Amino acid sequence: MDRRIHKTISFLGAVALVAVAVGLINHYGIAQLRASVEQMGLWAPLGLFVLRFTSVVIPALPGTAYSILAGSLLGFGEGLVVVCLSDFLSCTLSFWLSRQFGRQLVKKLVGERFIGRVDRFSQRHLERNFFLMTACLMTGFFDFVAYGIGLARSPWQKFLPALVLSIALSNPPIVALGAGLFAQGKLLLVFALLGAFGLALIAELVQRWMRQTNVK
Prior knowledge:
globular
């Protein structure tokens, strides 16, 4: 029941966040809103960076909402840089924290209800299969995966390349979705939808593997 409640709250939070962005865009217009964002200077991308970073290190709202928001407010290029940099630093920090301080600290960060998910990822020995590690990092579980791989004592030399590849493949479609929806970029939107479909397929394959290996 707790897991269902958390998923419901997370989903509603993501919907609310995107709804606020859409409402502001419809009210002020994307051009005017982006002009206001530009006037904020460094504070706008920094704020989105902090939100995305925090949602990974201390899992809260789904990071997808922040990726879409970054694309819609900052545009594809700048939004992608902010999201990718945030993901790289936050996942690297999560990996380092779990490897350096162990399960007790991770439990405090992710919460008692979700430490079991981290434990199960750590027991799957993802470091033995580079492509499986990369695929897991491309799913919505990537924050838990980073902690789990750290607990499994995976070497940096295997984790970092998988992290970089997963970020390079998974972030552009989602950021492009936000940029394409509100900038009326048809080609960008088509790319985003195709990419999102590919990510959904990967997520389904990973979840199937999780069920087959009794990871729930």
